[in-house]
Amino acid sequence: QLQLQESGPGLVKPSETLSLTCTVSGGSISSSSYYWGWIRQPPGKGLEWIGSIYYRGSTYYSPSLKSRVTISVDTSKNQFSLKLSSVTAADTAVYYCARFLSIAAADYWGQGTLVTVSS
Amino acid sequence: QSVLTQPPSASGTPGQRVTISCSGSSSNIGSNIVNWYQQLPGTAPKLLIYSNNQRPSGVPDRFSGSKSGTSASLAISGLQSEDEADYYCAAWDDSLNGHVVFGGGTKLTVL
Q: Residue B11 has what DSSP assignment?
């Protein structure tokens, strides 16, 4: 059974860079035809797609976050990562990593990790 | 506001059939497949419907999806108390070099 687990700091200071890692177990991140990506949910609000990376390395980012986001894959560790720079309080959210069987259909999710942006 | 429009709330009694709508445009629903998610309180979202009307393994056939033009719908028949959750639609949008868009979510209450 595929499992995903987010890890990273739960508190980030304004203007700094948020860094999260998603560790995949029970399957290979190099498996063909899947996307791997990040979705966030501010407290009490809806879902927002951050971006995805295809197993071959192509990246896709939310237009509103594109200038601040980088998603990368480390196949040797079976992990993928999110970096979001210049964070503000508006970036406070639960961050989920997920596997996508098509670009907008995430069929496996991590449990989510709350990241708070505060000084 | 969200690119895909959903009613903020819906309700029904046990056993009823309820539908949740998702309205978009030619750049998203009109030209791409729609997916639906269920999010129970305090948990990660779960893929409920993909490719407009396909159910992942384990999803009861009480849940069904459809699409027509620039709108899509999620139908839940034989409503059960455990169906009380937030429901989100999602699709690829071809504008701005392409990106995923979500609906704002619909809170379903089982009365």
A: E
Say how far apart CA A115 and CA A16 lie, in whole Å.
13
For residue A100, CA distances in Å to A26, A53, A105, B81, B89 come to 15, 10, 5, 29, 15
> What is the least distance, in Å, from the CA of A73 to any CA of chain B?
19
Give B-chain residues touching A48 at CB under 8 angstroms: 102
Q: What pLDDT, in 10s, does the model give residues B31-58?
A: 999 999 999 999 999 999 999 999 999 9
Tens of pLDDT, residue by residue over A37-78, are: 999 999 999 999 999 998 778 999 999 999 999 999 999 999
User: B109 vs B10, B59, B89, CA distance in Å?
Assistant: 6, 19, 17
Contact between B99 and A96 using a beta-carbon 8 Å cutoff: no
Task: State how far the Cα of B82 lies from the Cα of A85, in Å rounded to an integer.
Answer: 39
User: What are the chain B neighbours of A62 within 8 Å (beta carbons)?
Assistant: 99-100
Q: Which chain A residues are Cβ-neighbours of B97 within 8 angstroms?
A: 63
Low-confidence ranges of chain B (pLDDT < 70): none
